[in-house]
Amino acid sequence: MTGGVRSGKSRHAEALLAGAPSVVYLAPGPVPDPAADPEWAARVAEHRSRRPGSWRTVETADVAAALRAGDPAEAVLVDCLGTWLTATVDGLGTWDAPLRQWREEIEARVEDLVQAWRTRTGPAVAVTNEVGWGLVSEHRSGRVFTDLLGRVNQQIAAASDDVLLVVAGRVLTL
Q: What pLDDT is attached to residue 174?
């Protein structure tokens, strides 16, 4: 499920899985310290308040390992791939290594994520930002991020049964 920032995609993803007996909600992390980023903490709290009590939340930087853990038939919601990519990039540190080497490491992690996604047999929903419409700075890091998230989105879409686009709360099946 893809869309722009604040398009309603997370809310729709939650509704898709509302009838599942149990859901693992994977929140790519690390989740920022609420004291350091109160606006982000408020968003996280709002998302948590909407989820049913039967849902299990896993906040992790290693989404691929979390996808492989537990019952592959259990419903899973990954929210959001853009956050996962940002945390992955942050985890690699500065761009001291040559860009090619740095990009290869990220692409290897993307491939690991996609392979883990394919292990799921139950309902699985991934929320992501559509980078073709987003405002991304026209500098090297912005272009690299756009390219990488576009690649993540394409690969997860190729490994999925359906792709949905959410615009202004409206859902389109692609």
A: 87
